[in-house]
């Protein structure tokens, strides 16, 4: 009876310990570019521009997708992001899967005119003017 109880405690301890080690493993992965950017979008909020993207990867199991800032042009007009995710550590079903990511831009908002999201096989260029909406019907688009 005592052995069963200890086994249950050990199993409970292992289950509690696994999420911490899984988080460490996830943060330690070597992100790779996603295969393709399927859609990209800009959303304007007070003091920030939210860049979001959806894309495809070659297998199931990709995690922690993100948009990493690669470069900003010298004049501050173009921001280039790399769309990356962590590939599966082991075997994964060979089925094209989808991932998505978002990031916020809070600097150079007045000078930014273009956002580029790069993947392994393509990129999408977003013209900021196409996404800006007037605050009211009487206010011109900046």
Contiguous runs where pLDDT drops below 50 for at least 5 residues: 1-26
Q: What does the average pLDDT come to? A: 81
Q: Describe the largest sheet.
A: 5 strands, mixed
Shape: elongated
**Helix percentage range:** 10-25%
Query: Cα-atom Rg, whole angstroms?
Result: 21 Å
**How many strand segments?**
8
Keywords, separated by commas or semicolons:
single chain, 42% strand, three-stranded antiparallel β-sheet, 21% helix, elongated, alpha+beta, five-stranded mixed β-sheet
Concise overview:
The protein has 2 helices and 8 strands, in the order αββββββββα. The N terminus is likely disordered.
Question: Any chance you could write out the topology, listing elements then pairs?
Answer:
Layout (H helix, E strand, L loop, with lengths): L1 H26 L4 E2 L2 E10 L2 E10 L5 E10 L5 E9 L10 E9 L8 E5 L4 E5 H4 L11
Parallel strand pairs: 5-7
Antiparallel strand pairs: 1-5, 2-3, 3-6, 4-5, 7-8
């Amino acid at each position: 009876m005592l052995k069963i109880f200890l086994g249950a405690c050990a199993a409970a301890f292992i289950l509690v310990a696994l999420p911490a080690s899984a988080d460490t493993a996830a943060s330690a992965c070597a992100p790779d570019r996603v295969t393709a950017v399927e859609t990209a979008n800009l959303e304007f909020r007070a003091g920030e521009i939210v860049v979001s993207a959806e894309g495809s990867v070659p297998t199931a199991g990709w995690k922690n997708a993100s948009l990493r800032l690669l470069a900003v042009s010298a004049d501050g007009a173009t921001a280039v992001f790399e769309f990356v995710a962590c590939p599966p550590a082991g075997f994964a079903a060979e089925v094209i899967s989808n991932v998505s990511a978002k990031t916020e831009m809070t600097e150079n908002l007045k000078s930014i005119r273009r956002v580029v999201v790069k993947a392994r096989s393509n990129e999408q260029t977003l013209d900021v003017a196409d996404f800006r909406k007037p605050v009211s019907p009487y206010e011109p688009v900046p």
